[in-house]
């Protein structure tokens, strides 16, 4: 709580109700003094409610003077004389005392009625219920006071809170990071294949509470190590999985910033240590229950730390560590309030609207934090919803709808209600309505009406034309090499000399069979009764002559020669003197350097309708050659999608963009289906190489972004939910 900022009203029409009260702090309330960003702050702790308040000098001057003898009006006027414009206004003073009274940190000086207690209880209950509805993935249920348990177990973990303990943790985490990278394909494949299987979920449900219990106990031990107490233990439903939690807010009263940061990081440090142990077991265990337990422990301790506790964009451990490190408390709430203040000041023209920023440093943090946090929450909840929906459609769809309602619809409704009913906006309500309509309408109009370039970019690989393949005409043996790999050859130039003893012998046998058949034919022709036999023999001779001619052609081509000019790309592992070649075995490729290259393109299955129906222009782009493309021509598109990858250059391990299915041991199946298209032109074989990666853009003209975004969202849900 800080003093009044900006030009907030000094006086309040409700002050007469509070002016004569003589409030006092309740026994047990403690105050800690802290210096942050050159300013003195006072941390007021109410142990009964386990609440902590951060007060600036002016606000603390009011609260510190509440001794039960002085009236609130006298205290406030004395603080006003002392601090001047920095003193809190009467409205802010009333709000501050109300918060302290609600936390049982302040006795108002007047006996509250039973009705007041009832209203307060119902109000608190409604606020907690609304908070749970706003955060369907994170719901807390308090259970008991864990202080005795933490005190009893602390001696066993005390050695960890030392320099050797930290170095041991650092070594384990380093080893874990190295092994994770080395086994990434195996890990990611196991996640995609097993994470949502029913039997694996049962194992995860057993492992999850244990991992989180260690996490929360680590917070409690850290608080105990620096002299604090933990008074609340409960169950938190994290993505519908029950997990224990402790309220370590007592660390807020620690004067040492390093102690507060270490308390916030203790849970993550414990989980990463647990993940390192799980990785060690998982790498060495045989497939079975032990391996499954270790895998789930590794997944939970690692992924939850990365996505939730270790991300400062969510109000978990890393968030509080960041707040302490930069000296900006309540970063999330104040960042949101800053954006609200800018909207009211600059947009609605209400220049007296309070801004929570007290310095340029705070403003620099407020500007990016709220948009980034809001976007990440939407991304995370929708990603989890779609991931769950891939196996459990109804649950995933319900979670997605709930997330949209709480992160988009509800804030929008609250914003509209605020503009329509907030008394402080009444003087500028017309402008507020107009600005709000423009804020929502202009982006919508731009998305719906402004056409922008539209295209599909897909990876392709340069392939050799079928006519360019040089292969053995018959079963033969290489005698001499006439052209080396990479040589430029001319039409008719010899590439290699072959010998084919087997084909020569076969030709001699055919010659003998023809001679014998002709002798039989002559004998049948002199007989008057051999007409049928003569006809059959003539057919046999014709067949043998055709086979003789084919072998003759093959033997004539034993000296492999170039059929056209180009670059000869020999297969060095095959084109070796003395190597035996099977009939049809490829020995190299003759690349016509000036001919248009043939390109095979992997078009994503979710874009095939656009590519097949409206390719206004096809352009081919070579890597490293800038944005200027060469005009190509779409020849054919395979009607059926496939996941079988024939060209390794398109896969991620070879530098391409296609993600391989981790469960495929051969490494030839992609994670997503695609259609194979053939492109002619654009580049020549002289400008690129066989097997090289290129990018192909299919132009679809210009169209607004809104229908394209809707199409993407619709396809994503249809694919994930299998509708």
TrEMBL record:
Pfam families: PqqD
Keyword set includes Membrane: yes
Gene Ontology molecular function: metalloendopeptidase activity
Biological process per Gene Ontology, one example term: membrane protein intracellular domain proteolysis
Keywords tagged on the record: Membrane, Transmembrane, Transmembrane helix
TM helices/strands, residue ranges: 166-184, 196-214, 234-254, 261-283, 289-308, 374-395, 401-420, 432-452
UniProt GO cellular component terms: cytoplasm; membrane
Name by which UniProt lists this protein: Peptidase family M50
